[in-house]
Write a structure and sequence with these properties.
Layout: H1 13-20, H2 24-36, E1 40-46, E2 49-54, H3 59-68, E3 76-84, E4 93-101, E5 106-114, E6 120-122, H4 131-142, E7 145-147
Parallel strand pairs: 2-5, 6-7
Antiparallel strand pairs: 1-2, 3-4, 4-5
Amino acid sequence: MSEDALTKAEDPISEDVQLEKKTPLQQVVFITKDKFGDVIGEVLEKLGETSIFVKRESIVDVCRFLRDEEKFLFNLLSDIAGVDLGIEADPRFEVNYHLTSLPKRMLIRLKVRVSEEDCNVPTVVEVWPTANWLEREVFDLLGVRFEGHPDLRKILTPDDLEGHPLRKDFPLRGY
């Protein structure tokens, strides 16, 4: 049999060699996509930053994997940012998780898209306790609810303020 005729199943080393040729962030993407399959959507690499779109129902599992996997150790959730893509967009909102691996010196962003009608995302507080305040901020300013959050309430705006000020349809002078 010629070398060209070897299939992936017959040559298990080829995948490892391919993995070694990838940058550390490309390895993160490759291994995460391999483990989670269809849960991982589009991957964007732009201006030296990598973003991975994750299905909402799997965000906790993907976060836990990235935190616990010895090759990655994304041990710091540095920020959660909510984005309103506009009232015409469907899905309208994005929740961005900015992860840092201090031991490996890597940064990566996970993105979850949610529609205005079903604006809920599972909480990642059990993975990173610092998500508590970060999720409250996104909830307060954008209206994204975090299912299972231990204390989901406003954190920056007055209790009597109606609406969510970072939504693109929020009136400039309030309601």
